[in-house]
Specification:
The chain is mainly alpha-helical and 122 residues long. It has four helices and no strands.
Length: 122
């Protein structure tokens, strides 16, 4: 978006310089051409900061999440192929997760068995 603003600025400045060469009313053409140059620069900056930069940041975050997801899959496949113990593999792969997801998964596997045994005790 800033590049579009710069292109508009160049177009406005070219029109301003072209208007200065005219014999009649050369100075009256400078104002409108300069306003085009400044307005397009302003629009380019606004679009970049309000629209395009947040979209680019969100895409970067999603890209990093997808790369982590694929890395976990590759690690799991290689560990299965190497014949690692499933419990060891689970603990190894859980280390890739964020802390809240890690406790959720580890708590579900440990707490799930305790919840299943509780009704049998009654």
């Amino acid at each position: 978006a800033p590049a579009f603003g710069m292109i508009g600025t160049l177009v406005g400045l070219i029109n301003m310089l072209k208007g200065m060469n005219l014999d009649e009313g050369g100075s009256s053409n400078i104002g409108p051409a300069m306003s085009v140059a400044l307005v397009t620069t302003f629009y380019g900056c606004i679009l970049a900061n309000v629209l395009f930069n947040p979209i680019a940041n969100k895409l970067n975050v999603r890209n990093e999440e997808e790369l982590l997801y694929k890395q976990v899959i590759i690690e799991g496949i290689l560990a299965i192929q190497a014949g690692d113990n499933p419990k060891f593999l689970k603990e190894k792969l859980v280390t890739y997760l964020a802390q809240k997801n890690r406790t959720k998964i580890l708590g579900a596997s440990e707490g799930g068995g305790a919840q299943a045994e509780a009704p049998a005790d009654k």
